[in-house]
Design brief:
Length: 245
């Protein structure tokens, strides 16, 4: 008869808990809650990004426990599953912003295409100049598209979805943390322009920051994020075969 976890010594109980998929899920949710609490305590300071805090917290715990990523992912896959619904929900901001899109269709599409192109060429170019291997360079290509779609694009172009997700999250965190300061330095004052730029450059994490700054900025950021995801998913796999990185 198998012993109940409650009948085991404390050290063995800890081993039992750390190997449970639910442990990884709880760690993930608690890490984000801690990050969100710190973020709110610091008056929503962009440098105290809750996602960045959660990522650092989870990484620290995994290193401390020497927990393999595969074991962690057994629990984290419950959160990962929600990426599918997040992808589908990108239709909502596009639908809600359709009226706004019709007013400025040409400048927005031009900004989206130029911004997406610059994000890919800059990331790939810098990685190549620094001597990164092909796996890292390839994962940089879809990283500016929102993470759920970026992982799907990565699979289609035969690069690592895991690395792509990491770079996508880092991109969003950096954009949300310093994006407003960069836009201020550039003298950009119109909220729709600021929001659209944030949505293109920093996708979901940047969009959440844009909504905090101003509702119009958030609306255009969500519109940009959705459009960037759809257009990127269509164009990147089609255009990539014509280029050598």
């Amino acid at each position: 008869m198998t012993a109940s976890p409650l009948d085991l010594p404390m050290t063995q109980i800890w081993v039992y808990l750390s190997g449970s998929p639910l442990f990884a899920l709880i760690v993930t949710l608690l890490a984000y809650q801690v990050g969100l609490t710190i973020y709110l305590k610091l008056n929503r300071n962009p440098l105290a990004n809750p996602v960045a805090i959660a990522v650092c917290g989870v990484a620290g715990i995994l290193l401390l426990l020497d927990m393999p990523y595969a074991t962690y992912f057994e629990g984290a896959q419950f959160v990962h599953f929600l990426l599918g619904t997040a992808t589908v929900s990108l239709a909502v901001p596009i639908y809600r912003g359709y009226t706004l899109l019709k007013r400025r269709i040409f400048p927005l599409l031009l900004a989206l295409l130029l911004g997406g192109t610059v994000s890919v060429t800059a990331a790939v170019g810098v990685a190549s100049l620094m001597g990164a291997d092909a796996a890292i360079v390839g994962a940089m290509i879809p990283k500016s598209v929102t993470a759920p779609i970026a992982m799907g694009v990565a699979e289609r172009i035969d690069v690592s979805p895991t690395l792509t997700a990491v770079f996508a999250v880092i991109t969003g965190i950096i954009g949300a943390s310093i994006g407003s300061q960069i836009l201020n330095l550039l003298g950009m004052k119109a909220w729709w322009q600021r929001g659209f730029a944030m949505g293109v450059a920093a996708h979901g994490i940047g969009t959440s920051r844009a909504f905090i700054v101003h509702p119009l900025a958030g609306t255009y950021a969500s519109l940009a994020m959705g459009m960037h995801g759809v257009i990127g998913a269509l164009l990147i796999p089609l255009i990539l075969p014509y280029f050598r990185f």
